[in-house]
Structure formats: C-alpha cells, structure tokens
Write a structure and sequence with these properties.
By secondary structure, the protein is an alpha/beta fold. The chain folds into 2 domains: 176 residues, Rossmann fold (3-Layer(aba) Sandwich); 72 residues, no CATH class. The chain is built from 13 helices and 12 strands. Strands 6-7-8-3-9-10-12-11 form an 8-stranded mixed beta sheet, sandwiched between helices. A hairpin with a 2-residue loop joins strand 9 and strand 10.
C-alpha cells in the first residue's frame, strides 16, 4: 500500500526553532509523521514535549518574527510551509480546523455563539443571511446542544465548559474539514463531560470520515479515540505504532512510565503511586545522548553519549531506544 497516496498529512524532518540567530533553541527536532485518511493519530506526552508547537506549525500559527520552521508539512498533496499567510488563511478553518484546550479563551466574549460560527461559514463558504443562521443552528444540533435556536443567541459566558467545547467542535466542523487538530480538548472538563466529548469526536469522525490529530498527555484518553499513536518527548518521537500495539506491547521506557502513571501503579508494592522520576528537560538544556536518559532507570553509557535513531523493530512499530532488543519489551 502506498503510504504517500493514503496520507492526508505528511510531516518530514520538521524542526522548529524559537529565538533569533545565536539565541535560537530547537523545540522540535526533526520529527516525521504520517496521518492516513480517515484515521485518528494520538500525539501523547507530558507538558513541554512539543505537542502543541507541532500543531501550531501545521496550522501556520507560529510567528515568523521569533520562530523558524524547517522541513516539510504536506497536507492533501500541498506543501504548507511555503504558502503565504493569505493562502494559509484560506486553508485554516476551512480544510484544516483546530479545537483548543480552553474554549473560553478561544471564543470571543463580546460576540454571540451564532455570530462566531456564522463568521466561519460566511468567510470560507460565502453563506450569509437566513441560510447562514439555519446552518449554524444545525451545526449546534449536530454536536448535541439542546435548544439550539436559543443557544445560538447566547454569549459564551452563559454556557458551561462542556457546552463551550461543543460550540468549538461545531465551529471546527462548519466547513467539513479534511483534518481536525484537537489540542487537549477535554483537559479542563470533568470525567463525565470528557467522555461525552470523546464520544462526540468519534461520532463525527465516523460520520464524516474526518482525519484527526488528537493531542493529550493522558494515555487513557488516547486509548479511547486514537487508531495510531506517536509518543513525544523533548521534541522527539520516541515510539510510534497502532494504539492496540502500544497498549499491548509498549517498548520505550518512557511509554512504559506513562502507562504506569496512568494505571496508578504503586512502586514495588509500596503505597506511594508511581511517577516518572525527574522532569521534562528545558529546550535550553541540550543533552548529547537520548533526551530521556537522565530520567531512565535503564540508561546505559551509550544512552548518555548518542541519541538512537527511530527504528522499526517490528512491522509498523518504531522505537527510539538503545535498550530495545529482540523486538520484545523487557520492562517489568
């Protein structure tokens, strides 16, 4: 099967620097990703790993004044990094849409819900007047918002966090985009609402065949929605495979640590819950070897000197780790 033909999005050797000239620091270090049409790619890792920066680079929302993007971002056969801001503006919100973590800061408090959804339709689809209003109400209904005609006239502050997030999803789906990027859209919600929002994403994806990048630090959330998973750490992809394979056979020590933290596993039978020792390194703290080595209990001397390549250890399963041998996990 030709992965280039099947891919709606291909990222090739993406590097993102912040700062200027000699002060520049790399926050994304040459990542490669493929998202196939109609599938959901989960991008997972702790805060500060580069997940959101990757999404902003795809959307063309990084300021050229204090950042530099290298590599290729190819969406539906079109290279995005060489497009003007005007042409990116025609794609952003139309062919590619984004749902952010906190809807209250994404929605404008001085405009009604109807006005803000309607603006997307008028800008990208040329739909105005009563037809625009009816489209907006139908979009609100499609994300299971009751009494949509009344909510259409509301201001954002009158809605709960879960309802505001539904509005953001409706806005993202307004132009039936080919790709949706959801950047931790359930983090600020309680568990019940979180489950409802995940179900809504799955339902919309199945009905419209929309491809999706779903960003989260929570492997439990990723398990619910993703087909494929890329584990990110310090601007690198550390492990990549299908979601089923990742949960059945995690190979990287970092992935295994995330799994244990999610399960609430205790440390060798003690009452204290498991956590990965240390913190995600700052981009200013450049380590010569594997970026996870300072936190890894299985690090060897080579890990501290040389960063391993992301290699395929079994069909469809890639890992960046010196410790992984014989295509099997040995982490107990």
């Amino acid at each position: 099967m030709n992965t280039e033909v099947d891919a709606i999005l291909r990222i090739e050797e993406l590097v993102v620097h912040f700062g200027r000239r000699e002060e520049r620091i790399a926050v994304i270090n040459g990542i490669n990703l493929n998202l196939k049409k109609g599938r959901v790619l989960g991008l997972v890792g702790e805060s500060g790993c580069g997940k959101s920066v990757t999404s902003l680079a795809i959307m063309g929302l990084l300021s050229p004044d204090d950042s530099e993007v290298e590599g290729k971002i190819i969406f539906d056969g079109q290279e995005l990094t060489c497009l003007s801001q005007e042409k990116m503006g025609q794609i952003r919100g139309n062919s590619i849409a984004m749902v952010f973590q906190e809807p209250m800061t994404s929605l404008n408090p001085v405009f009604t819900i109807g006005y803000q959804i309607g603006e997307v339709l008028s800008l990208h689809q040329g739909i105005t007047g009563e037809e625009n209003r009816q489209h907006c109400i139908e979009l609100l209904r499609s994300v299971n918002i009751p009494d949509s005609e009344r909510i259409y006239q509301y201001y954002p502050h009158k809605l709960s966090g879960g309802m505001r997030q539904r509005v953001m999803i409706a806005m993202a789906m307004a132009c039936r985009p080919k790709l949706i990027i959801a950047d931790e859209p359930t983090t600020a919600l309680d568990v019940t609402i979180q489950a409802q929002i995940l179900d809504l994403f799955k339902e919309l994806g199945e009905k419209q065949g929309t491809s999706m990048i779903f960003i989260s630090h929570d492997l439990g959330v990723i398990a619910e929605i993703a087909d494929d998973v890329a584990v990110m750490y310090a601007g690198h992809i550390m492990e990549e495979c299908t979601a089923v394979e990742l949960y059945d056979n995690p190979l990287h020590p970092y992935t295994y640590g995330l799994m244990n933290a999610r399960r609430g596993s205790s440390d060798q039978g003690k009452t204290r819950l498991y956590s990965i020792p240390g913190i995600v390194p700052s981009p200013y703290d450049v380590v010569p070897g594997c970026p996870f080595a300072p936190r890894c209990t299985r690090a060897r001397e080579v890990c501290k000197c040389e960063i391993p390549a992301l290699r395929e250890v079994k069909p469809g399963h890639k890992v960046r780790c010196w410790e992984v041998e014989n295509h099997t996990a040995t982490f107990d």
